[in-house]
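Need the bound structure for pentane-1,5-diamine, inputs here:
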Amino acid sequence: MKRRAFILSAAAAACSRGPRLNVYNWSDYVAPETIPDFERETGIFVRYGTYESVQEMLAKVMSGNSGWDVVFPSADYIQPMREMGLLAPLRPEWLPHLDALDAPFRHPPWDPELRWSVPYMWGVTGIAYQTSLDRPPCSWGDLWNPRLAGKITMLDDPPEVLGACLKMLGYSLNSSDPAQLRRAQQEAIAQKKLLRAYLNAEVRDQLVAGDVAAAQAWAITAAQAIEAAPDKLAFAFPSEGFARFADTVAVLRESRRQQAAHRFIDYLLRPEVSAKIATATQTATANGAARALLPAAMRDNPVLYPSGGTLARGEWFQPQSAASQRLRDRLWTEIKSA
Ligand code: N2P
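Answer from helper R.:
Posting the output first, comments after.
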């Protein structure tokens, strides 16, 4: 009987006549079994899509009729997405596993009551590099070294690239000062002739293959690359300071599947589910109960969970004012076309 019910629900899912949910997430942000297990347990069929940058996600959902239900915005995009009317308020009564979150993520500065978003992953942005280099990079300035020409990549992400340039110049990552931003732009343009490409998570395989010598990289991507080639690769927390980011999960206002969306988010919050995700994807989880379940080597991986002293040199991304955002967009377009 049980088996028959399972076959029926699998058949219903296959022709997608049953309940469904459209989930749009970063690449490499769930374990292989996460989605199939959820479908099996709930009978909700998931259409799952991935993106490589928050800008790519935003461009898709901006219209308010993208068809996606659940997305994973970076924390500094919560306020702008809310102001654009893109997010649905969360229903905490449908999220019984919220208490699995690590204490600082229960009341984060970008959404203190978790009205719009649930913290998912976090990390820092630093430099992934080949240990064979005779002078290992330790500062953003080292990514302007002509000896590495053609073997350097930067993230394909405007706040990250401008942020690294601003930090190198001794300014805040979140500067909205036009003069500082223009100087940062000049540095980015000067660096372009040394770059192999602007790459996000895609840089991982090129690091492992040895094609990239040094990359501005998310700790997550670096940890995945280091796991694949532990003797060849390492990660540096740049001496001038660096970005801290958090990615969250949120429900779009356009969604007509609010309850299923919450069911999915609560499933992700379950410590065992979340621990499997953190293990498979090598990410720093915001789920304290899940982290406690991880093997010690992963729980204490210094790339993913640096010491408080190291983290203190980082700076969280902050939302920009509309005027500053416009200027930054323009500067970025000019960098890309220079
Ligand atoms: C997932 C990497 C996301 C980290 N592949 C940056 N928010």
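Comments: The radius of gyration is 20 Å. The first strand starts at residue 20 and ends at 26.
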